[in-house]
Amino acid sequence: MTSLAANSAMQTSAPRAGLGWRIALVIAGIAAVLTVAVLAGARYGLLLAVGLGFGIVLEGLRFGFAGPWRALILRREPAGLVAQLIAIGVVAIVAIPLIESHSGELIGAHAPVGFAMIGGAFVFGIAMQIVLGCGSGTLVNAGSGNAVGAVALPFFAIGSFAGAWHLDWWTGLGTAPTIALGDVFGANGGLAVTLVLLALVAIIALRGAAPEHRRIPRRLWLAAGFIAVLAIANLVIAGQPWGVVYGLGLWAAKGATALGADLSGSAFWSAPANMERVSQSLLTDVTSLTNIGIIAGAMLVASWRRGFDQPVARLPAVAWIAAIVAGLLLGYSSRLAFGCNVGAFFSGISTGSLHGWVWFAAAFVGSILGVKLRARLGFEGAPNRGGHK
Amino acid sequence: MSRRPVAIAVALLLLGILALDTGISAPLNPFAAPSPIALGSGQAAGGAHCAAPATR
What we know:
The complex is a heterodimer of chains A (about 400) and B (about 55).
Chain A: H1 3-13, H2 19-39, H3 42-60, H4 66-75, H5 79-101, H6 115-130, H7 135-143, H8 147-171, H9 181-207, H10 218-238, H11 245-258, H12 272-279, H13 286-304, H14 317-336, H15 341-350, H16 354-376
Chain B: H1 4-24
């Protein structure tokens, strides 16, 4: 049994917290949502609830991105990737027609393909395999007490802030026009192309697997369904798809401002929409609220399962340094790539953006390299339950 | 060391960010909040998303 599998077994067989504590956890979650709704507005309370849902499903049902890609690369196990594709497909069925018919109220995760975008996705793929944590995975890992995720998270935010600062320069290297499949083929045509491509990738992944690995576990079916429902709710409530990276960069921008930094030198941060975000409360920012919810949701599940009793990974110094560097790269590269596994891969593809597909290809190639690098940086063999993220 | 102190540190970091934010951001005003649901509200989305371009 591998260390990752052993940890999964530990997790499922671990005793749960007492009834009183579990009731307190549920009350705390509801109280947080109601508090934000009262202080900031009903939409923001709902978005925190959606974020909590993401965190609970991602941690509770061990649904992730980096881990399943690693499983496919190393062991040709496609179940996790196919579950991701199913969730994306379900969201696309609702999101692409809805965005086309309500273009004044809803926006997709539509971004252009370019040299920096492709390079950013490639680097993100490397970095997410080094720490076994993508955009959502780093939040979940940090919330569940994973020290590698907790170390990477603040540097992810700093990297995202810096990447956004330089985004204008990077996109100037060469960027094609934004292509949304719904605009090119119409809502039905764009949806059909998206679903056919998703099915093709799933078929290729399943046919490349050993017969015993072709079954999708029930927990992944459930997780894919819940994630899809939550992603659709995110779009309908916020008017924009699920994202992670913008919020993290905004947190660092807030910190920089508090330290006296002048953001007017950045084309990105001095844009009116972003200046407004920096000046307004994080409790009114869509991605900040869902990010907070994901961390808190993972905490609730970890506490419910008494997961905090697990030991922290003992890693060599080089691994901790790698976690810091990878955190910075995760943030910086995902800004150049117009999103991470959530904003570009999940939300980009599910809202019909061509850049989501290009992101997928580039990040997967990067992941192949990242899997090899992780082994050389001292992470292997450590009790780091990040394999499902 | 268990995961508990790590999770506590993350929670404190999050609370610290929110506290700092409260000190430097405009006060919350729930009466100026947008409609609870964007779909059907007639209001445009804010656009503060990962896919947003450098300038708008």
